[in-house]
Amino acid sequence: MDESSDSHYVKNFFQTSFLGLLALMLAKLKLAAYGLLLIVALWFAWGFHVNYSAITPEAAVDASGSRKLMIFYFAGLIFAIVGLGILIACDVVRQFACRTVDMLFDDDGPATKDPEYERAEQVWAAGRPMEAVELMRDYLKRNPRAQYAALRIAEIYEKDFRNYLAAAMEYEEILKRKLSSDRWGWAAIHLCNLYSKLGRQAEYDALLRKIVNDHPKTSAAKKARQALGWPEEISAPDAPIHPGNAQFVQADPSSDLTDSTIHSNLPPGFRPKKQK
After folding, report:
1. Which residue among 20, 122, 173, 176 is least crowded, i.e. fewest CB within 10 A of its CB?
2. Parent domain of 40
3. pLDDT for 4-57, tens place per residue?
4. Residues 87 and 119 in one domain
5. 125: part of which helix (H) or strand (E)?
6. Are residues 123 and 139 in the same domain?
7. How far apart are CA 269 and CA 179, in angstroms?
């Protein structure tokens, strides 16, 4: 391994450690926000109830102060409930987005059945992504065919740590495995997105060409052709691609892979997990 690779690994180690601590702090802050909003909502609800009860037909003339307080408490209650709703919605969407990846690399869904893997997912859900990555690596060493675990590691680096270099390195290892054309293509699409974020234009262009040339019949190749500006079923031109000539369509598993154009025509080898 050359000095450049060594420096990348060292930088990746320190960056991931720092971001792991940051993610843990953010998880604790989120729990504190839940608790605070809940307490505030209860306080406003109690204040609204007290002032509403104080307004009686007999005291209606002298109840203007209570009415104002009642409106104030009611407005505060609405804002607190909206805040709680936003936090809950964000957590639910994030959870579903992360689980979408498992559908791509696992036909029968062992990721939801294996207790060892589920323990790693529970650790991640508890706000300890670095510990979850370590558990998933141990699981992957014992189950090298479970590439859904490798994909989850890459996703945690990208989504939780915002460490695009580490995520790209994980996807590069995934692409070295023997995968079906469809699965290889979608993993490559994710890697292209990361290359774009890292500013690695040459690797981005080369991988898009490889997707089209090596796996031309896949849905991933269709996206790659759109990004390259090529018509359907065309071989790679000899001339290099200018960065400004191609706009890549994001292949985020929570959006593109579940939109109407793809969901209605999933490629061979993909099928949703069985309902519990």
Report:
1. 176
2. 29-56+63-105
3. 444 544 555 555 555 556 666 777 787 888 888 889 889 888 888 887 777 665
4. no
5. helix 115-125
6. yes
7. 11
